[in-house]
Request: fold
Amino acid sequence: MKSFEINKIAGGILGTLLFLQVVYLASNAIFSHPVPKPMEPASNGPASSSGASKPASAAAAPAEELAAYLGKASVTKGEADVKVCQMCHNLAKGGGVILGPPLYGVVGRARAAVPGFQYSDAMKAKGGTWTPQDIFIFIKDPQAFVPGTKMTFSGEPDAQKRADIVAYLDTLSDHPVPLPKPAP
Ligand code: HEC
Reply:
């Protein structure tokens, strides 16, 4: 009788533990635990206080080089691939604004330089010049290169296509900019 009661108590405890174990496993499955982000700029501490945290995180992704794709770049293919841009961009010399600024002569042009086009604050603040390499990277993921840009183009992942596009855009100019030497 006594041992029967002990068995009952022990069984009750084991049952409870088993139940808790199941709850624990289920909660683990339901609530995903945040994975620590090793590249968080905040973890760099004061070392990156001079605004260095941004270029550092941008440099974390391996830089894609236009030069590596220029050897095979085709202006003819670029002319075909640029159709998607022409929804929003006028490519003709003296062309006006569509949804975006005209792109004749854009290679080597200062950023946000078309008078009368309402650029985003992000684009105005970016500064600098549209080098061939910059355009190559920008059209891969516009929001990544200029966070807050109003160019709502999702991006062209194919690097060869982007090289073709840059090579073609460079021909749309009175003074084409020399493209980087194709890398072997
Ligand atoms: C859905 C419309 C849309 C499409 C498609 C689009 N763009 Fe744009 N683009 C814009 C807008 C709007 C801006 C102005 C961005 C800003 O002010 O932030 C812009 C800006 C730019 C600029 C900067 C121009 C300057 O004067 O500073 C370049 C370069 C550019 N686009 C290239 C391209 C290329 C190349 C393609 C095709 C691969 C393309 N865009 C596709 C809308 C578009």
The two ends are 88 Å apart (CA to CA). Residues 25 and 58 are 38 Å apart (CA to CA). The pocket of heme C is lined by residues 84-85, 87-89, 99-101, 103, 106, 111-114, 119-120, 122-123, 130, 135, 139, 149-153, 156, 165 (CB under 6 Å). Confidence is low (pLDDT under 50) at residues 42-54.
